[in-house]
Each structure stands twice: as C-alpha cells, then as structure tokens.
Fold this protein.
Amino acid sequence: MNSAIPEPNKTFKSLTDADRELLSAWLDGEIKDTEPILRLRERTPEADLYLEQLSQTRALYHTARRDVSPDADALTSAVLDRIQFSRRKGVSALSGWRPLWPWLMATAAAALFIIAAGTVFIQEVFPTRDAAPAASDMMVSDTASNGTAIPSVEDFAAFVDEEDPVGGLLADLEDTWGDLSEDDLLQYAALWDLQTEPSSVMAADQNILWWEQAERLAEFFDQPDSAGFPTSE
Amino acid sequence: MKTEPDDWTLIERVKAGDLNAFTVLVRRYQTAVYRFCEGLLMSREDAEEVTQDCFVALYRALPRLEERARFFTLLFGSARNLALNRIRNRTRRLFRERDPQAVQATAGQQHSPDAACAAEELGAAIRDALNAVPEPFRSAFLLREEADMDYNAIAETLGCPVGTVRSRIARAREMIRAMLQEKGLLP
C-alpha cells in the first residue's frame, strides 16, 4: 500500500467494513433490497454522512475528469488504419508469391519480344542465305548424276555475273559446264535464280520460308513449264 | 424505431468481412476504454496508444472469439492487461535508464504527463488521488466509474467474486476521498 495515502476516514467508527461496502454498493444501485440500508441508517447517523461524502467524492471525480476523452474521430481512424494495414500485410503474408508474378510476366513478355524481334531481324537481313543453302542441301547433291564434279553455287553465280545474267542462256551454261547433264544445269539455274532474283521480286517473297522455296523448287522440277524457268526444250 | 445491433451481432458481421460493423464497435466503446486506460496509466498519450492496441488486438482475435461472455468484459479485460503491461514496461525502462532513486522521484511525477491539463488544480488533485490507489482497487473503481459497468460485469472482467468487487470499489472510494480531504477539497 502506498504510504502517501491517508488512512481511510476513522470518523465513521460506528460503521463496519461491511456497512461501508453496503453503502457504497447502494450508491451504485447494486442493492435491490433496501431494507438493510434503511436499518443501517436508522441505527447510526454516520451512515447518511458517509453516503454524503461518497456522493461528493464521486461528483468531484466526474467533474475533474469530464474533459478526459479522446478525439473520437482521430482515434477511430487510427484504429481502422492500423487494421487495414495489418490486413494488407496479412494478404501478402498469405500469398507471398503474388507481388512477384507481374515481374515474371513482364520478364517473359520481354524475352518473347526479343526472340520475335531477333527472328524478324534475321529474316530481314539474311532472307535468302537461310533459305538457299537449305534448299541446295535438299535439292543438290555434291556429285552430279553422271559423276561430274558439281560447281559450287558461288562459282556458278560468279560465272553468270560475268556473262550478263539478264541475257544469259542455258546454252552458255552448257558450253561452260558441258559435262553436266541438262537436269543438273536446270537445278543450278534454279538455285542461281533464287540467289540473284531482283530485289523487287525478293521483297514480294521475303516472307516465304526456305522450305516453301524448296517446295517451289521441287515443283519446278516436276512441272518445269509452269514455274517459268527456261528450258532447253 | 431503429435499434442498434448488439455487440455479438456486430462481431458476426465483422467475421463475415464487414469492416463497418467493426467501426460501430470501436465508436461504441472507444471513449470508455480510453478513459479507463487513462485512469490506469495517467497519461493521455499512453492511453490512446493502448486503446488502439486493444481494438487492433480485438480485431485479430475475432476469428477465435466465441460468445461465452459479455463482449465488453472481454474488451475491458484486454484493455486492462495491455495497460498493466505498459506500466510494467515503463517501470522497467525507467529502472534500466536511471538509478532507482531517480526512478522513485520520477514515479511521483508520472501522474501529470500532460502539464497543460495538470494545471487545473482539481484535475491534478484527482489524478494524484487516483494514482495513489493501487491495483486491483483502481481497476475495479475505474470500471465502475468510467465504463459504467455493474458489479457482475466487473467481476467477470477482473475474474473475481462480486463481493470482492464491492469491497475493492468501496476501498478505492475511501482512499480517493481521504486524499481529497487532505488537500482540502472535501470537508
């Protein structure tokens, strides 16, 4: 017990601890049966005095503390803010991966874009180099059907450049590589055509993939006339 | 006439995700909780923080809360625990930071944390008197005077018999009256 507290009033010598508790409780409206209170008040006048002092104490207490109240709106807002913060934190804690998925999606999209852009770039810059070797690999063997060594595409193209590609005839080719059969020459003529087509023609066909070009080549050999390639016949 | 939903109805709504129902609960009890805490802590700042802590703790505990008792007895029981913890922490901190003699001197001044309000003589006298009432007398008294609880609810909150509550409140009143008499504020 705090030594600073004065000893509770000794003036009410006629009241027991139980009497004082009863009167205090009665002041609070906790005693429904008023009979003991009436008897006590009849027994000693100190009961009324004690009640009066308790009432004064209570009134003084409430007077002094009437301004003790919070800023209700601010307090409510503060509580709700803290709750909403903890709710957000709770959601993140429950599914910690969620904040990451937009980054993953963005990274994946960027990777796809780079791949797509790279593919388009390669097709733009090297449109025929991808197609022609592949077609040549598929369509031309290293050795002609009659056993003659076959010139490379570069040799063939160099020859055509020297011989005026526009006016070049199949007969000129036969003169140069007389050992080659007509079919072999036609194959090389087709390859040469693919590699030396004017840019306007290539622009129209730039989106054609190498296997489509190869199919066109194969179609030519099946139906030479319809493909428009010159023939010796 | 529109009647306000009772506490447990509001709590069921909060559990279902209705934050507005929780706002109603906060507004219903915040002033009483604050005044109760202020009476225990003798500090408006601490009282406000503890009141906030109390409602936040209540919100977190809601999923596990069962209708076993009157809601406000749980609320004030929690507020009391938080306030007493704060008093203990405050005392420990003071002991760590200062020598015991200085702590004793400071403890005597803790009743007036808000100097502007303490300027009022009556307010200061009441604070002095209230501060002199030890636990658990003070809690019982404050629950009666600040939260307007009946003795059964106070007994439920403090976990003691009703007879004990009655004697504690009477004893606290006598202590406060004696202090006020000593200061000449009561005949």
Q: What stands out?
A: The CA atoms of residues 10 and 21 of chain B lie 5 Å apart. Residues 71-97 of chain B form the longest helix (27 residues). The two ends of chain B are 47 Å apart (CA to CA). Chain B touches chain A through 52 residues (CB under 8 Å).
